[in-house]
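Hi team,

As requested, here is the filled-out complex form for the SN-glycerol-3-phosphate run. I kept the field names the same as last time so the parser does not choke. Let me know if anything looks off before we queue the next batch.

— J.
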Amino acid sequence: MKFFIDTANLEEIGEAMDLGVLDGVTTNPSLMAKEGITGTENIRAHYQKICEIVEGDVSAEVISTDFQGIIKEGEELAALHEQIVVKVPMIRDGVKALRYFSDKGIRTNCTLVFSSGQALLAAKAGATYVSPFIGRLDDVSTEGVELIADIRQIYDNFLFDTQILAASIRHPMHIVECARIGADVATCPLKPILSLLNHPLTDIGLEKFLSDHRKADS
Ligand code: G3P
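And here is what came back:
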């Protein structure tokens, strides 16, 4: 399973790269706003900076919601850098745009997916990635990871190439469950990735190894 980081924060992206486990980056308009990046030119310059830090795919989201607007914006974003993947919302004109981009060889990430029907439509339209938001489903008392399992089964039944990019991940067990079910990618903030490191028996074991070494050495 690939690890993407879900942030527009350059330091966090650098930290995940430094750990040696990062395969790509996803962003969205909220994450850009959180970093104080505003205005079309600044936002596009920021995407380019992200592409210079990472080697993998970088999702850049369109703001337009009509077909012509999505096409224009998506083509401009894709032209910024070869690593850019155009993020398109799961709406009617978005699905049409997914097909258009797919036919043009422009890679896409269909975002705001909350049902297996939406994921089926995204795959039929040729999306490169589909982003089911598991944390936001959990927030409304619905098992987010079950959606990942349903989509996995549907995509496997028909050998769809669309990759399942599990998004809205909130904690390390979301990552582990997604890996167990067979999501292709998990995108998450840095904290849940680093939380995968933690186990008290590792800390206790290391402390014992080091103290035994010190005793034997003295
Ligand atoms: O980038 C989309 C998704 O990962 C958002 O996560 O935590 O805002 O639900 P969250």
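Two things worth flagging: The chain has a mean pLDDT of 97. The longest helix spans residues 200-217.

Thanks,
J.
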